From TrEMBL:
Family the entry assigns: Belongs to the isochorismatase family.
Protein name per Swiss-Prot or TrEMBL: Nicotinamidase
Pathway of action: Cofactor biosynthesis; nicotinate biosynthesis; nicotinate from nicotinamide: step 1/1
Residues in Isochorismatase-like domain copies: 8-202
Native source species: Cupriavidus yeoncheonensis
Amino acid sequence: MRPGPDDCLLVIDVQNDFMPGGALAVPHGDEIVPVVNRLARVFSHVVLTQDWHPADHVSFAANHAGAEPFQMLALPYGQQVLWPVHCVQGTAGAAFHAGLDVSHARMVIRKGHHAGVDSYSAFLEADRSTRTGLAGYLREHGVKRVFLAGLATDYCVAWSALDARAAGFEAVVIEDACRAIDLNGSLAQAWQDLAAAGVERIQSARLLQPKAEPNQPN
Ligand SMILES: [Zn+2]
C-alpha cells in the first residue's frame, strides 16, 4: 500500500494535554509520535488538527456548577461528555508534542474554538452542522483517501474517520498510530461504528514496508 498524490495523512490532536502527564492524558499517547513521524514521510500531503478551546468552553466540567469530569451533560445539540480543562487556546497544553516532526504539513485545522460547541471531528462540529472547511480543502487538492492517525482512537480519530466517509472520502485508520481513552466501552463501540461505515483498519507496517521488488505484487 503506497500513498499517492490523492492520499492525505490526517494527524489528529498530537498535543501536550493528551500526552501522559497532560490535562486529559490518553494512556501511552506519546508512543505514537515516532510512528506518526515515520508515516508522515511517506505522504506528500499531511494535515494536522489541533484541539483549540476558549477558556469558557462548554465541554469543560469546570464551567458547569457541581459537574465532574467524565460525566454526561445534555446540551442543545445532544449528549456531551464533560472533560477536564484541556487545550486552551495559546497554552503549552494546546501546543503540539515537541517530538512531532511533520514540518511539511500544509494545513492545521483548529477545532472546538466555538465556546458553545465541542468538535471531536476534523470535519464537522458536535452540533453536526457547522463545517470546519476541511472537506472542501481536501477536495480542492484532489484528495480521495484519508489516512488517520492520532488521539484519541475512540473520540476525535473515530469521529473524523466517520465524517470523512460521510463527506465522500475513503477512510483508513492506522491503528498502531493511535491510542484510545476507552471510556465505558467506547473503543469497542468505535471500531464497530467504523467497520459499519466502511472505514478500513490497518497497521502502519502496511505503509512503511520497503518497496516491493518490481516482479512482486504489492
Ligand atoms: Zn477538546
